[in-house]
């Protein structure tokens, strides 16, 4: 349907079939107030017009797509609310019972009284749960402008009826088929009369009355039961196969006697030469009036799986939170000097992902999660160079300086709001291309909403209670059953959320932790805003007491190892990571000292005395003699050989040591030759020469052109300043209360300007319906000047500098210099208008103020 047709539709009276789509009701026909009949609105726009401002704001909040751009008036809002895209989006956000209610209205007469709708959902025998839940479901549909009208004349928006009503190409979820009137639309009048005679009904003079008589028979429970009592048992078996859908069946050219009996009596109606259909009225009789086999008025409960003491949950979650911090730090430490290259199509290669998983000692899927988490938090990005590589961002250094609890809250807040979906890594997109970690195609708009819903369901359980995942997924399916895409990703997102929340430490042993509850409360209170460093402070405060205090000492052991009895303070950890290699992690981290690690510290500019002093200051045990010997031995040999740039050279005061190097077969690849008793020249570059000599067991030092020792500290590599990736929203953003209030006022004012009663001035060209008034320049000036003197309001047509025409209600205050200054009721402010842009004016019958 085009826009023009929709505009006309919003003004059609209720007597026209399917008129006036998209509205709510006034609230007079409240769910619980059904005793007094209330006047039903005739059009959708009229239904919206009678709503209070709070109800209009609730509509715009529930369907924010209607707000972009702000409608000019309520007629335009009604038209927009009936468009296919908007209705589909609204239907997708209904829970299962609200959707079942809309589906029942789609197969009910239009308009349908409330008792008819109740009977379709509760059946002939009634259902107390349905009777209790239906008013709330109907109120929700009205609030979203999918249903409008009083309880005596309920109407489903036409577009929603088209989407939900059964058709041969689009079966209804109810399993119902067409009505008798729809199924016999192309049938010959003689055939209809034959069906009447076979059913024992008198003949009529026209097809319309014949169809009405047949419909009356099928909807009369007593007469219909009597007719079915005469049916062969085999015929009843055929009906049983079709009653819950699909309602269509194939028949041969010469059908069996049971099928022939059903067809002759109109219980099966032909739709083609080989196809028959079970009429809706017959199916409803066989179903005892139910539109759905299993109405679901009550959301399924989330069953508890296990219960723990809250302290146990918080401790387990805190331990995992500490592990999460370690994982992110270790990952970015691996890439501190520059990470792997970015693929041409974006993202990380499979080989580099495997290397990251091996470095973290975890699975590839878990490694992808930590990578995506660091990326979403703005700690990791590509450097943007020609040879593009991944590296930590400058924000990473600031993040390292925060207390552990605040570092965790930054990660958790980024995870909760990110649309990045690590669970997709390794899968394939629509073009059968593998989805890479950190790639451009991992954003999924529903991800933040699903994470919030999962955590909100966990928060409703008693503290320390872990849910049964199957019941949790069943609850989520009830809350969002309708999806138009080929694959609904929400169940997978829910499962990934449970896994990721446990990895991150939001949950412990499957139950929501205390800091997880604080995180959810903070995120819920700021829905629609951007992540800032101030968010998550309450979660950080709840987590901090459960984290171990950083320690400033280690335990040195005689086997050249050091044991850190807890997380180390940042300066101590940084120095120790250079001086020793991490051998194992866990509750206590074990470091091992090796010649290579000590040489690494010496290359970074440390002297042997500095290393001895450092260990003595931070060890609660005496420095073992083997460790002191190791440091002194490496330091004694460190720098004895000097490598510089010729191609490269080696010089040493000990010519015997140079003789030993030349004689060593392992030096053949360096192609060394003696230039002087204390100098060797090489065909390799200085870096390769250094590496080769170290591989042979020596401890050479690089020197500058002036002969000074070059200190080769590990250079940290950082990207230029980068912001965290913005989430990709699902549809328009949720409006805040300020915007909602302003939008409602603007729509009300525009509607007042469009519908206000006005007087026709003499010699004034009447405006077309919905058009602008037309007056001459002299008449316009005279009318405006008179309004200034009397203080009355005017209805004007105005064309702005861009040529856009609008109509407004103004109260002129002053006219001078070709301009009129007036209070604009439409904009709710004082404005100045050039008189030459006013197309016409008309006096109002009543002052809108």
From TrEMBL:
Alphabetical UniProt keywords: ATP-binding, Helicase, Hydrolase, Nucleotide-binding
GO molecular function: helicase activity
InterPro entries: WYL_dom (IPR026881), XPB/Ssl2_N (IPR032830)
Residue ranges constituting the Helicase XPB/Ssl2 N-terminal domain according to the UniProt record: 554-676
Domain of life: Bacteria
Lineage, broadest ranks: Bacteria, Bacillati, Actinomycetota, Actinomycetes, Kitasatosporales
Ranges of biased composition (kind: Gly residues): 17-26
Listed name of the protein: Helicase C-terminal domain-containing protein
A Pfam match: Helicase_C_3
This protein's record includes keyword Hydrolase: yes
Biased composition (Low complexity): 27-37
Source organism: Streptomyces melanogenes
Ranges of Basic and acidic residues composition bias in the record: 1-12
Region (Disordered): 1-43
UniProt domain WYL: residue ranges: 779-841
């Amino acid at each position: 349907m085009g826009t023009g047709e929709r505009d006309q539709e919003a003004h059609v009276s209720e007597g026209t079939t399917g008129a006036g789509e998209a509205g709510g009701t006034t609230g007079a026909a409240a769910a619980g107030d059904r005793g007094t009949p209330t006047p039903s609105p005739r059009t959708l726009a009229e239904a919206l017009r009678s709503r209070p401002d709070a109800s209009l704001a609730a509509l715009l909040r529930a369907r924010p797509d209607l707000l972009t751009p702000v409608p000019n008036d309520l007629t335009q809002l009604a038209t927009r609310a009936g468009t296919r895209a908007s209705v589909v989006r609204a239907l997708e956000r209904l829970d299962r019972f609200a959707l079942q209610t809309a589906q029942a209205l789609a197969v009910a007469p239009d308009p349908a009284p409330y008792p008819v709708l109740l009977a379709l959902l509760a059946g002939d025998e009634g259902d107390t749960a349905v009777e209790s839940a239906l008013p709330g479901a109907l109120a929700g549909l009205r609030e979203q402008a999918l249903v409008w009208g009083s309880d005596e004349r309920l109407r489903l928006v036409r577009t929603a009826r088209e989407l939900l009503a059964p058709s041969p190409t689009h079966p209804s979820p109810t399993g119902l088929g067409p009505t008798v009137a729809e199924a016999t639309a192309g049938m010959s009048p003689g055939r209809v009369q034959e069906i009447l005679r076979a059913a024992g009904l008198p003949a009529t003079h026209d097809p319309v009355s014949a169809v009405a008589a047949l419909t009356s028979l099928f909807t009369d429970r007593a007469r219909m039961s009597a007719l079915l009592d005469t049916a062969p048992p085999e015929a009843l078996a055929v009906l049983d196969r079709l009653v819950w859908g699909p309602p269509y069946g194939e028949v041969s050219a010469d059908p069996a006697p049971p099928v022939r009996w059903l067809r002759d009596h109109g219980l099966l109606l032909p739709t083609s030469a080989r196809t028959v259909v079970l009429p809706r009225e017959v199916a409803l009789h066989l179903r005892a009036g139910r539109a759905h086999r299993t109405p679901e008025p009550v959301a399924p409960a989330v069953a508890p799986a296990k219960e723990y003491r809250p302290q146990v949950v918080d401790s387990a979650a805190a331990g995992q939170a500490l592990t999460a911090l370690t994982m992110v730090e270790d990952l970015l430490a691996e890439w501190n000097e520059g990470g792997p290259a970015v693929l041409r199509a974006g993202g990380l290669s499979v080989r580099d992902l495997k290397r990251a998983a091996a470095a973290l000692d975890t699975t590839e899927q878990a490694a992808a999660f930590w990578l995506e988490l660091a990326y979403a938090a703005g700690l990791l990005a590509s450097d943007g160079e020609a040879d593009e590589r991944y590296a930590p961002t400058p924000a990473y250094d600031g993040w390292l300086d925060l207390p552990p609890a605040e570092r965790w809250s930054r990660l958790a807040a980024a995870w909760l709001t990110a649309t990045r979906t690590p669970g997709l890594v390794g899968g394939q997109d629509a073009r059968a291309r593998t989805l890479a970690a950190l790639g451009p195609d991992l954003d999924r708009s529903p991800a933040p909403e699903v994470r919030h819903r999962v955590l909100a369901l966990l928060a409703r359980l008693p503290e320390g209670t872990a849910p049964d995942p199957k019941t949790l997924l069943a609850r989520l399916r009830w809350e969002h059953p309708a999806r138009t895409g080929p694959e609904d990703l929400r169940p997978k997102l829910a499962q990934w959320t449970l896994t990721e929340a446990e990895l991150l430490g939001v949950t412990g042993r499957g139950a929501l932790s205390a800091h997880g509850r604080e995180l959810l409360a903070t995120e819920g209170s700021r829905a629609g805003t951007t992540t800032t460093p101030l968010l998550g402070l309450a979660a950080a405060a709840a987590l901090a007491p459960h984290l171990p205090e950083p320690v400033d000492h280690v335990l040195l052991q005689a086997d050249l190892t050091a044991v850190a009895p807890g997380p180390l303070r940042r300066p101590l950890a940084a120095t120790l990571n250079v001086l020793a290699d991490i051998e194992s992690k866990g509750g206590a981290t074990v470091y091992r000292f090796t010649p290579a690690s000590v040489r690494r510290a010496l290359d970074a500019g440390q002297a042997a005395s500095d290393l001895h002093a450092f260990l003595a200051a931070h060890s609660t045990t005496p420095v073992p003699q083997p460790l002191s010997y190791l440091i002194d031995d490496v330091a004694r040999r460190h720098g004895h050989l000097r490598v510089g740039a010729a191609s490269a050279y080696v010089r040493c005061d000990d010519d015997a040591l140079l003789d030993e190097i030349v004689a060593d077969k392992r030096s053949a690849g360096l192609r060394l030759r003696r230039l002087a008793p204390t100098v060797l020249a090489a065909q390799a570059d200085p870096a390769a020469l250094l590496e080769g000599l170290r591989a042979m067991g020596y401890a050479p030092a690089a020197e500058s052109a002036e002969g000074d020792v070059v200190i080769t500290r590990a250079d940290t590599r950082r990207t230029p300043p980068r912001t965290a990736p913005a989430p990709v929203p699902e549809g328009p953003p949720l409006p805040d209360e300020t915007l909602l209030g302003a939008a409602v006022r603007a729509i009300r004012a525009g509607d007042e300007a469009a519908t206000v009663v006005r007087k026709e001035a003499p010699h004034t060209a009447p405006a077309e319906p919905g058009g602008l008034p037309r007056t001459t320049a002299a008449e316009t000036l005279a009318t405006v000047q008179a309004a200034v003197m009397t203080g009355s309001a005017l209805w004007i047509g105005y064309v702005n500098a861009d040529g856009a025409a609008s109509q407004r209600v103004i109260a002129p205050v002053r006219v001078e210099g070709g301009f009129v200054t007036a209070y604009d009721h439409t904009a709710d402010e004082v404005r100045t208008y050039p008189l030459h842009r006013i197309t016409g004016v008309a006096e109002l019958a009543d002052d809108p103020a």
